[in-house]
Amino acid sequence: MLVPLYEAVYDRVDVGPHTRLLGLGCGSGLALLIAAARGAQVCGVDADHERLDLARERLTPDSSREVPGDTARATVLACGGPERAAAPDGSAFNLVTAFHPVGCVSSVEGLTASLATAAGLAERGSPVVLGGWGPVERCATASVLRVAQRLADPLRTAGGWRPSGRDDLEDLADRTGLRPDGSGRVACPFGYGSLPSAVRGLLSTGLFDAALEVTEQAQVEKELSEALHPHQRPDGTVWMANVFRYLIART
After folding, report:
1. Cα Rg of the chain (Å, integer)
2. How far apart are CA 138 and CA 162, in angstroms?
3. Residues 12, 167: Cα–Cα separation, whole Å
4. Closest CA to 23 of 167, 134, 109, 122
C-alpha cells in the first residue's frame, strides 16, 4: 500500500547505484527491494523475526551483488537495532529510512533512540527520511483504525495507532538532532479485493495486536468489518483513499 510513498522518496533523494541504504523497521523488505532494483546497496533491521524471514527470501539472492565504482557490501537483515547492520569495515550509509508511520510505533522514545544510532552510522549530511500519516480528514483508513484504538484502550500506552499530529515528523527530527530539509505528501490508497481480504490485511499490520490482547478475535473482526463496510464498492472490493507524509532531515 505504501509503494507510492517509497517511489516518491526514492525519486526525490535520487536512489541509485551510489546509495547505501539502511532501512529501520524494514518489515518484509518491500521498500528495500524497490531500492535494490534501482541499484542501491540495502540493509535493514526490524523487531519481527517472521517478517525478516520474508525479507531474506526477497533480498538474499542479490546480497552478493557487485556495484561498479563503489565498495560492495552484503545485504544485512538483522533483528534488533540499527547497530546490528553496522559494517565491520566501518563504511557508512548515505541514506536512512524510517517508513513505518509515526503514530504506529510502540514507543516514540525507542524510535528516537534508533534514529540517533542510525544517524551515527551515516555520513555527515546524509538524508534521513521519516514517514507518517497525513491529515486525518484526508485518510479514510483513520476511521477504521479507530476501532483498534477504542478496543485497545486499556493497553493504549502499549502501542497501536493514534491520529497523526501536524508536526509529528518535525518533532521527531528535533528530538533526534536532525535538520529538516524538505517534506512532501503522497496519495497511498488502500485497496482490497474483498471485505475478508481487507480484514486479514489490516490485522496483519500489527495495529490491532493490542486490541486482540484484550478482546476476542471474533469481536475484533466483527467490528473491523462493520467499520470497513462504508468503504466497500458495489463489486465487493474495498477502497480507502489516504494521504501519507514524509520528512527529509539531514544528519
Report:
1. 18
2. 15
3. 21
4. 122
Structural domain boundaries enclosing 136: 3-250
Pairing of strands 41-46, 77-79: parallel
CATH of the domain at 174: 3.40.50.150
| 132: its cell numbers | 507518517
Burial 54-82 (b: 16+ CB within 10 A, else e): ebbebbeeebebebeeeeebebbbbeebb
For residue range 192-207, what is the model confidence (pLDDT) as tens digits?
Answer: 999 999 999 999 888 8
Q: Give the containing element (helix H, strand E) for 97.
A: strand 95-102
C-alpha distance from residue 44 to each of 31, 33, 49 (Å):
10, 11, 12
State the Cα–Cα distance between residues 248 and 119, nearest whole angstrom. 13
DSSP-derived secondary structure for 62-85: GTT---TTS------EEES-GGGG
d(CA 118, CA 93): 9
Total domains in the fold of the chain:
1
Amino acid at 208: F
Q: If DSSP codes are grouped into helix, strand and coil, which group holds residue 235?
A: coil
As a dihedral over the C-alpha atoms of residue 233, residue 146, residue 101, residue 39, rounded to 10 degrees, the angle is -20
Q: Read off the pLDDT of residues 149-187 as tens digits, 9 standing for 90 and up.
A: 888 865 454 445 666 777 889 999 999 999 999 999 999
Q: Nearest to residue 225, comparing CAs of 247, 192, 249?
A: 192
